[in-house]
Amino acid sequence: MLLQPLAGIGGKANGLFSRVGLAGRFLLETVYYSGMCLRRPRLVIKEIYFVGVLSLAIIVVSGLFVGMVLGLQMYDTLDRFGSGEVVGMVVALSLVRELGPVLSAILFASRAGSAVTAEIGLMRATEQISAMEMMAIQPIARVVTPRFWAGVISLPLLTSIFNVTGILGGYLVAVNLLGVDGGMFWSEMQDSVDFRLDIMNGFDKSVIFAIAVSLVAVFEGYHATATAEGVSRATTRTVVISALLVLGLDFVLTAFMFRGI
To answer: Could you tell me the pTM of the whole model?
Structure first.
């Protein structure tokens, strides 16, 4: 009786590690069959439109309001120490280092990742994937790889757009609402934001987040239980796992990139 709780914990841990191993093998298979994307680029372009272009609205609106809120909050704090003019620097660094990559990845997972999971899961539920296997068509090459690479390509671009609109939102609030000098806003930002240490590290984060979120989306959809409830659960897992994975990876990457570890 005393060993039953330990057995339950061990069973769950074993299942977790087995699923992580399955995801790793799935990633290798996805990369192996990625040559098809070069031969049929229209499939990738179509998926870029679906996961990238159709996500522009939520990215732009969210970036604008995040930048505006940062401008308000940071100016209120900095002005207490007589440093309100450096609000442009703080807004830009906050966005390009942290908020841009992280929030863009979470928004991308919520909108595009869940849609990809549901789409592939419905293909599994309606036996379209089984039909491909019957016709000697590799489902991973035909279904998974275009969606995976579309996500990897789209998310860094969406992150860049998020950063730009966020900085614009901070500028609108700081200059037009709070009275900060526009030249000081841009000059402080340009003097303090380093291209390699800040912008490129943030871009590298977005690429890693794109790989993680895209892998979770296609993996959960491909291995979803072939029922309506199974597809629903897979879609929920995509959003939850992606958000936790992005936050965990963000801590690790920040430690290595900005702390000199």
So the answer is: 0.91
The DSSP secondary structure of 92-121, one letter per residue, reads HHHIIIIIHHHHHHHHHIIIIIHHHHHHHH
Residue from 133, 72, 128, 115 nearest 221 by CA: 115
Place of tokens 């309100």: 84
Element (H, E) at 135: none
Contact 154, 109 (CB under 8 A): no
- Report how far residue 23's alpha carbon sits from residue 28's, in angstroms, rounded to the nearest whole number: 9
Question: Per residue in 231-260, pLDDT tens?
Answer: 999 999 999 999 999 999 999 999 888 665
How many angstroms separate the first and last alpha carbons of the chain? 46
Tokens representing residue 75 in the block: 């100016």
* Contacts with 71 (C-beta within 8 Å, 6 or more apart), sequence order: 87, 91, 169, 170, 171, 172, 173, 174, 177, 178
